Amino acid sequence: MRRPAFLSRLPVDPYIAALLGTVALAALLPARGPAAGVADGASTGAVALLFFLYGARLSTREAMDGMRHWRLHLTVLAATFLLFPLLGLASRGLVPYVLTPELQAGLLFLCLVPSTIQSSIAFTSLARGNVAAAVCAGSFSSVVGIVLTPLLAALLLGGSGGFPPHSLVSIVGRLLLPFLAGQLLRRRVGGFLIRHGKALGYADRGSILLVVYAAFSEGMVRGVWHQVTPLRLLALVGVEAVLLAVMLTLTGYGSRWLGFGREDRTAIVFCGSKKSLAAGLPMAGVLFGAHASLAVLPLMLFHQMQLMVCAVLARRYARDSGSLPAHPREARIPSPSGD
C-alpha cells in the first residue's frame, strides 16, 4: 500500500507519529484502576495475537530452503545477537554520567532484539542487494529472537532489577506458544491471512499501539517518567547514533573481509544493523512490566533513526552499483508497520 504524497515528504514515519501520539495519550489520559486491568488484559491478548500471526505467516519451507546460504545467515545472527549485545554491555560504562541505569537497561534490551524483516527487505531491494537472502535472514533472526532475546535478557539484565526471572514463564505462555500454534495452523489459516493481509496489517499495528499505551500508562501512574530529563534524552540519541554508525561500519567492512559479494554484503548490512520495533515492543511489555515504558524508549528512537539513515544509505548503494531507479517513486520504501 502506497503512502499519500504528503506523508512521503514527512521526516517522521507515520507509524512512528502514531506511536508518539499513543505515548502522548498515555501521558494525558493514563489507564487507572479498573481501566488499567482492562488495558493490561487487552495488551496480553494483543501480544498473543501478534506472535500467532508471526508464526502463521512464516513459511517454514522457505526458511528451510534458505539454509543453503548459511554463511550469510550466521553472519547476520552474529551481528544481531553477539556484536550488538557486546556493544550494549559496553554502554554500562556510560552510567551514571551519560545515561541513567534505566535508560542503559533499555539500550541493552534494544541490542538484544531480533532484526527487522520488512524494512530490511525494502532497503536491500532498493540498494539492489540479495533480497532472497534478506527475507531468510530476517525470518531466521525473528525465530531465533523469540527464544534467544528473553534468555539473553535474563542473563544480562537479571541483576539490574529491571527484569524479573519469572518472566521467562510469561514468555513461553504469551510469545512462544502462540508462535508455535501459528506455525502448526499455518496450512489451515494461510489462505485467510493472504486474502485479508491488509486488514491484518492494521491489526498488527493496532495491537502494538495498544501494548505501548498499556506500558506507558503504567509508567505514568508509577511516576517512572520523572526519572528522565531532556538532557538525558539528548544524550541517549547521541549514544544511539554512535551505536548505529558502529554497526553499519562493522557489518559493511566485516562482510567484505569475509569475502561476500556486493549483493550479499548489502543484505548483511541492512539485516545485521537494524532492530525490530514490532518484535521488541511486545517483548518489553512482557519482560519489564511497569518499567516497560523506559525500556522501549531507546528502541523507538533507534527505529526512527535507522529508517532515516538506511534510506539514505540504500540510495547511495544503488547509485554506486549503477542501477539507481530513474524516478524516486520507483524506489519507494514501504511503511515498515512497526518493523
UniProtKB/TrEMBL annotation:
Pfam families: SBF_like. The chain crosses the membrane at residues 12-29, 35-54, 74-99, 105-124, 131-157, 163-185, 206-225, 231-254, 266-288. It comes from the Bacteria. Keywords: Membrane, Transmembrane, Transmembrane helix. This is Sodium/bile acid cotransporter 7.
